[in-house]
Amino acid sequence: MAQRKKLPGYLTGNWQHITHAQAWASAWRIAQALINLALSVDRPVAVLSENDLQHALLSLGCMVGGCLMQRYHRRICCSARTLKSCACAANYPARPGIRSRCRALQHGICAAVGNAIKVVSAAGHVEGRISEDFKLATGTFVSAAPPRAKIIAAGAPCAQDAVITGISGHGVGALVFPTAAACALHGDVLAQHFQQLVNKLAPAATSSGNCVAELHVMQEPPLIDKCEVTDKGAVHQSAVLMHRRQLVDALHQDAVHPIFKPHIT
After folding, report:
1. Using the 8-state DSSP alphabet, how is residue 201 labeled?
2. 45-48 and 69-72 as β-strands: parallel, antiparallel, unpaired?
3. Nearest one of 161, 145, 175 to 250, comparing CA atoms
4. Is 125 contained in some domain?
5. What distance, in Å, lies between the first and last C-alpha atoms of the chain?
6. pLDDT digits (tens, 9 = 90+) for 37-56
7. Angle at 252 between CA 190 and CA 265, to 5 degrees
8. pLDDT level of residue 94 (50, 70, 90 thresholds)
9. Is residue 257, in this structure, part of any structural domain at all?
10. Same domain, 245 and 150
């Protein structure tokens, strides 16, 4: 593994290398340190980090030691002023077991770029990544990626991203995050655009599993502090579904406004 050393002013210096043997040895040391701290799947490691060599070594150490690692992107760290707010973003209680900086690598703990690693103890079970694919109440399988992609493509330039809903429900729904251009449009124009969108998508559907039966346009952007934005800037599907359960339920109960449903003539 290798990375360029970061210098002030967005400049880069020489390459820093870690051989396979060095990475393996570091991973074992880190794993032992995490085990000594009684960290595990139920007591995860929370990392405030960008992608770098130290993050990679810590990831390897967690895998060797059987510890769960929850990563926070630097944008979350910058917007969350305290460890408590970072912890709440992932539903962790703010009970740090240890705080370590980059220089502590020789002790088996490696830290994030310029800040610190926070090892947070979680009292309860930590849920893993929720799959984006699911089944309706009828048993019909829903693959979330295709309708999401169709909404973004057919909804341009007004649809920035979409979250597909309907787990154990009777139909597929969508929460659509509008673009900045869409937000600048008059309400009636925007409503017409999304009504035409669902009308356009419906004829191409082959089953209830890929037909968007109801669509809601979000009134607020995805929240970074709630981990609703991925490292690459996309909407984190499972985080949105988890933090906006009431809105999802309201969508499928026709209890939120506006809701757009296909009108096929």
Report:
1. H
2. parallel
3. 175
4. no
5. 59
6. 776 556 677 776 667 788 78
7. 55
8. very low
9. no
10. yes
pLDDT one-digit tens code per residue, 121-174: 332 223 333 346 888 988 899 988 889 999 999 999 999 999 999 988 889 999
* Alpha-carbon separation of residue 47 from 113, 140, 156, 214 (angstroms): 10, 38, 35, 38
Give the angle 250-179-173 at the CA atoms, nearest 5°.
30
* CA–CA dist 58, 68 (Å, integer): 11
Domain with 144 in it: 134-252
Give the residue from 58, 91, 120 where a domain finishes. 120
Cβ atoms of 159 and 152 within 8 Å: the answer is yes
Within-domain flag for 70: yes
**Would residue 260 count as lying in a domain?**
no
Total tally of structural domains belonging to the chain: 2
Alpha carbon of residue 124 to chain centroid: 20
For 46, 160, 162, 163, the CA distances from 118, given in Å and listed in that order, are 5, 33, 32, 30
